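The data are quoted verbatim here:
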Amino acid sequence: MTGRPAGRGRLSRSSEFERVYRNGRSTANRHLVLYAFPNPATRGPRLGLSVSRKVGGAVQRNRVKRLLREAFTRAAGGRIQGQDVVVVARPEAGELAERQGLAGVEASLSELIMKVNLYGPSQQPDVEGGEPSAPSASLPHAAAERAR
């Protein structure tokens, strides 16, 4: 038996999604909407994904879901604890996945995680080493995006 916790760290029931939608905090950008709700009953974060047919066909939607799961795993990096998170992919997420792949999806998701402050005040990720740092240093592209 491995050291992995039971389950896969995912939201699967409709009632779990509803609780996060109704009671959680939310933030959005052009590509994604992120909802987060504290769940002290879980150790690590649990992720739920919603990718509608507006994003594309089945192959495109599955690719976006794979990229979102991987991006969330990298962005969370053990720093997010006791949260249920739902990520809703907007139609532009499919275009982002095609153009920029995992790097673009990860940047977009990390931006939302920082907006909602899921890391907590002392655990902002650093781009290079994964060490805590100031939010402005961790996403230099965010300032460039705002300047456009």
Q: What stands out?
A: The domain at 14-141 is CATH 3.30.230.10 (Ribosomal Protein S5; domain 2). Strands lie at 25-28, 32-38, 46-51, 83-89. Residues 92-116 form the longest helix (25 residues). The mean pLDDT is 80.
